[in-house]
Amino acid sequence: MGGDLLQRIRVHGAVPQHVAVIMDGNGRWAKGRSLPRPLGHHAGMKSVREVVAGCLDAGVEVLTLFAFSQENWQRPASEIEALMALLEEYIASESAELSERGVRVRVLGDRDRLTEGARAAVGRVEAQTADGRALALNLCISYSSRGEITRAARQLAEEVAAGRLRPEEIDEDAIARRLLTAEWPDPDLLIRTSGEMRISNFLLWQLAYAELYVTPVLWPDFTRRDLFEAILEFQRRDRRFGRVTA
Ligand code: FPP
Fold this sequence. Notes:
Blueprint: H1 3-12, E1 18-22, H2 26-31, H3 37-58, E2 62-69, H4 77-100, E3 103-108, H5 116-128, E4 135-143, H6 145-161, H7 172-176, E5 189-192, E6 211-214, H8 224-236
Parallel strand pairs: 1-2, 1-5, 2-4, 3-4, 5-6
Helix pairs in contact: 1-8, 3-4, 3-8, 4-5
The structure holds farnesyl diphosphate.
């Protein structure tokens, strides 16, 4: 599916090295079908499989998915339990294939707050896929961008106080190296589903020069074709990074 679009992507040339996605609209998808919200999240799992496969096909190197924010802990307990169970289910059902296809999974966020089962599953999938080289899949769970920037600032202050770092050594690189995404290049493309025009405390530092792509498609309806459409749109953009075009 989407072979025609993939062909066009290849003709155009460079694909984004790093794609980030705010997976939004699961609740509305469920509501539209008079289903409980957790079933929307469950349906959203299929779209996760779709974008992982699409990124592998297109040659994207890093995929970062916003699965659960720090703010999401304020949702009803039943929904949180369903999301934790879903994370376990996703890992149990996908680990073997992710490992076979060379996908390296990492979870970014405060994992201490996860349920014991989810935390154990995360540890297992990270260990099992650690050698993957085809695609880095980052799942942002219990994640807050302001939280990670604050943590980096605190770390820098501690290093200065301990005499291991001079204040004049604090540059953008020093900050980036202390973020959870330290080992990857910044996202080139941010996709948000369900039409909302917000960044929602996601990768605030890292998205400085990302191309934004908002689609009205609700996350459970998002397919590999939608990913390819987003990549094609990215390829049409004129990225200037604050400069003028030559
Ligand atoms: C936002 O939709 C989505 C979430 C809070 C959860 C995303 C989770 C998944 C797609 C589940 C599978 C993922 C993994 C990695 C196991 P919303 O509930 O805010 O939707 P709404 O805005 O329509 O209410």
